């Protein structure tokens, strides 16, 4: 009986999975994006990141601006699952693009400080369910699971939509049954995070996680190595924020040592508070300004390349 | 200042994880238990006991193997003391042996649990009374998980042997298993030797009935821990961590209610799972809870809440102090001493002492009316009113229990009752969560109370049971805690 209930819940979860929310719709479209990259016009540009780039880049405008600047067509794809970071992108790229042998010419990765270090708080269910394949599941669980429990959850989540998408189901059911669930959880999370936070000694951009001296960037280095091994040129671009912030020197050094390019002009274009929709993500005006800025930077970079990658 | 205990290796070491790795709500535990139960089925009785002993030490050692030494010391001393007491024809000599056991066990408990608390408190007292600054001698050692539980369990054994209530164990491994039996080692129930020891010594049988009852206990325990306690912990921890300008008085009241369900779900959950898995091995542990929030008076509450501790305190402290013999004031004195020490048993902190004091006052204050409350047959409305009133009195106790300090408890008490009657959206969120997550469990308890059978669900037709288990499974899968938290009683 218990097994029957479990199977029934799993079937329902699998039926709901592709359309649970816009993010799942986007994730389920990754294989199509990989196919599009295969046949896309060169230079093929992939925008890789999270909600910062989802809301911060207009891919049509970017494509138009670069095509105009280069006087030749190009293709732009956005791979921007929300609430992800370098630790996710490494597996995501391997699963959807390396394994299908579908590589762009350049990958632009947008980030703020806490997206690059290994200390980023992973969502193991989501990682193994959506960004891992059977080929890299073992290494993922080995490297990312801190405890046997996390590994067990990650393993089950890879095969079970019910476990993998549990947070989304929980959110949906609780929002329907508990008044003020969303605002309540958000408020209490903020209170608990603030209670746990120790002030960062050097006033870094993200006081919520460890100070830069304790940050490591092994997964970032792995991501760059994977990209470069397939002839992809990686660009890292710090995303504008309402308050000025600087890239951790350790992250900068890792990016440069691995032969990637850091477009460290985060002060340009200078954004006002009105350019942000919620104090973190870019709004409509910010999106247009940032896309134009990105297009000009990429056009310069692409022009300076002697020959585009095949 | 480093102490000899630190040098011996009991010092606080940040490299050792403080999370109990084999907690019942971990996957690792269930892998461990699957291996144990397979071996259990394959082995004869003696082999089962030896295997369970090894498994129990592995279970405890997975947290911190160094503290197995303490269990071994308690086990060896109490085993040999009981032998000596039995063999001794002279009561005075038997009493001395018994005193050795009590001194050793309470000595270990005192050093590992209370030494730093008392020296630090004494230093603060000197400073406040005489402005005398002193650097208190602290041992800076880790509190061994479950030390209060197994210490009380072994203490009860030697005292019962001395009193002639139980026979001394003749097999050291069997007695060692009685002390360390893993389902109840770190958070009880505190089993008496006359109940548990015979079940260990004699061959056991398991039946379909054991499996069905065990399954119910495990599922209800996991539900209480994961669905209720851990989700309530998120609300309670958030509200207790909030500053005055972030929450209103009514939000704080909801935070205290959330803690009431957290601690109940947490502790009931642990006890129920412990009973369930023990039943699967043919061992029946005592019920530790009987719908405590339906109590209408403190005496009623303590017959329903943490029954193994309250009965221990009654039998080994309250009654030897004189119990209710000797008039009202002596009875109150005995109640106050018992509850103060009961409070201190929970933790080395002044909030626990205050909690014990509060429980003692409640017992004394209700004492003149206890008989009337117990014997009355009130209407449903009156029963509801009395139950709700007493639940709120229990919650005042939980406020003392949960607060980081007496000052925080007072601040909460003051804002809730006197100074701030405002509420934010956390109030509907908190109350809604309590209703949605804990409400169905309380409804089940109402039904169990009417049937007067804690395991009544195991006797209903298959369809109803299936529906209840399917609901529990759905809730367990979907409503995983937003942030995980350990079993509260591990720290005791």
Q: Summarize the amount of helix of chain B as a percent range.
A: over 70%
- Which series of helices and strands of chain A comes N to C? HHHEHHEHEHHHHHHHEHEH
Low-confidence stretches of chain A: 198-212
Principal-axis shape of chain B equals globular
Largest sheet of chain A: 5 strands, parallel
Radius of gyration of chain A: 20 Å
Number of strands of chain B: 0
Number of helices of chain B: 19
In round numbers, the mean pLDDT of chain B is: 90
Helix vs. strand class of chain B: mainly alpha
Q: List how many beta strands of chain A DSSP finds.
A: 5
Please indicate the percent range of residues of chain A in DSSP E strands (runs of 2 or more).
5-15%
Q: How would you describe the oligomerization state of the chains in this entry?
A: heterodimer
Number of structural units classed as domains of chain B:
2
Q: What does this protein look like?
A:
The complex is a heterodimer of chains A (310) and B (492). Chain A contains 15 helices and five strands. Chain A is α/β, with parallel strands linked by helices. Chain A has one domain: Rossmann fold (3-Layer(aba) Sandwich). A five-stranded parallel sheet of chain A has the order 2-1-3-4-5, with helices on both faces. The radius of gyration of chain A is 20 Å and the shape is globular. Chain B is globular. Chain B starts with a helix and ends in a 14-residue tail after the last helix. The relative contact order of chain B is 0.11. The mean pLDDT of chain B is 90. The chains are: A alpha/beta (310), B mainly alpha (492). At the A-B interface, helix 1, helix 9, helix 11 and helix 12 of A face helix 2, helix 10, helix 18 and helix 19 of B.
Write the layout of secondary structure elements.
The complex is a heterodimer of chains A (310) and B (492).
Chain A: H1 2-16, H2 22-28, H3 30-39, E1 44-48, H4 51-56, H5 59-70, E2 75-79, H6 86-98, E3 106-111, H7 124-130, H8 134-144, H9 148-159, H10 161-164, H11 166-177, H12 181-196, H13 218-229, E4 233-238, H14 249-257, E5 261-262, H15 284-304
Parallel strand pairs in A: 1-2, 1-3, 3-4, 4-5
Chain B: H1 4-10, H2 27-42, H3 45-64, H4 68-87, H5 91-130, H6 147-163, H7 172-180, H8 182-185, H9 193-201, H10 208-241, H11 249-280, H12 298-302, H13 307-321, H14 327-346, H15 350-375, H16 380-402, H17 406-419, H18 426-451, H19 462-478
